[in-house]
Amino acid sequence: MRGIEGKYIKEFLKTYLVLPFFGGAEEAYKIKMLENNPTPGILAPEIFVEAESCDCRFDIGGRKPMDLVFRTLCIDLRNLITILNSFVSACEAAAELMLDPGDLVLKPEYVFVDITDYKAAFPYLPGLGKKGTKQTESFFEYMLNRVDYDDKKAVALLYDCYIIAMKEERGLPALKERIEKEAPALKEALNTEMMAFENKAFDVVTKNEPSLKSWFKDRFKRKQELEKKPVESEPEILPEDEPKETVLLSVRKQEAYPTLTCLKNGERIIIDKLPFIIGSLSGHTDYAPMSRNVSRLHAEVRRYGSEVVLVDLNSTNGTKVNGSELVPGEERTLYDNDAVCLADMDFVFNYKG
Asked: Cis (ω within 30 of 0) for the bond into 275?
């Protein structure tokens, strides 16, 4: 899988992944087949000719690469079952169309996840299966590295599916059967989670919102107590002549980290870890700007040696450095006082705070 290196291009409001075309003229029918039979979970290729190269491009929409989505979030049982079902469905759909499931790209950088429901979509690259790449093994090994090891059911399911996937003679039916066995456990977990949420909400209501009858009863009782108790005026608190000295309780020495300063409100974002993800999706990002126009996974700051670079993560409203818009996946080196624009928010970058 190391030989598959893609790039991103943007045309109008669409973002495409471009991968090298491994198939020949005899496999052009596969592209036509997918074009005439759109299949959820499979990204159909389009022939893309640029200069002297003939490649395939895929419309990825608003999806995000799998390795990005689970870079800061572990794969739990719910997400694991969703991804595995997406994988099985894509393989079954390819087989129904008389296509080779081995042509599905399983490299995590090019498997795309819809972060609203965590369903995965796989580019179909004609001729890839003939290269004999160990895609399935690498795909499951990646998930083994990202699974939530505190979620015992997720770990057990993934290990079982990994073993099944390595035994080609059993194929998809055994894999599908093992995933379906976990459905009751997932349903029970979801029901438990929902009941806990409802109980918590009920407790809050019962604590903070008493019944109408008890409310009137308390109000009437309180009124009687106030009528019996003489009114006492509180002494007036006059301002002191001299302000009290402000005492600094603790001083924390800050290290020299790269920063982004927002021009709108002066907020200073300290980039104290790299990579550093910016976006509005809770649980996945390191900083969430106060703007509805910033994508859920908008941009990422990375380090290569002494260089700090900014990468657009297929954002809807774009990322700019000094007025120049970045193509999704493009890395742009940042220097002191560079102007960075994320959708409608403007920042100034400083390398050492």
From this structure: yes
Write the CB contacts of 160 (distance below 8 Å, at least 6 apart in sequence): 178
Tens of pLDDT, residue by residue over 134-152, are: 899 999 999 999 999 999 9
- Tokens (6 digits) for 320: 């700019």
**Considering the entire predicted model, what is its pTM?**
0.76
Residue extents of the structural domains in the chain: 7-185, 259-350
Domain 259-350: CATH architecture, name and number where available? Sandwich (2.60)
- Beta-carbon contacts of 34 under 8 Å, excluding residues fewer than 6 positions away, are 42, 44, 45, 97, 99, 124
CA gap 121, 64 in Å, rounded = 10
Minimum mean pLDDT range among 30-44, 103-117, 179-193, 305-319 = 179-193
- Any idea which fold 7-185 has? Transferase(Phosphotransferase); domain 1 (1.10.510)
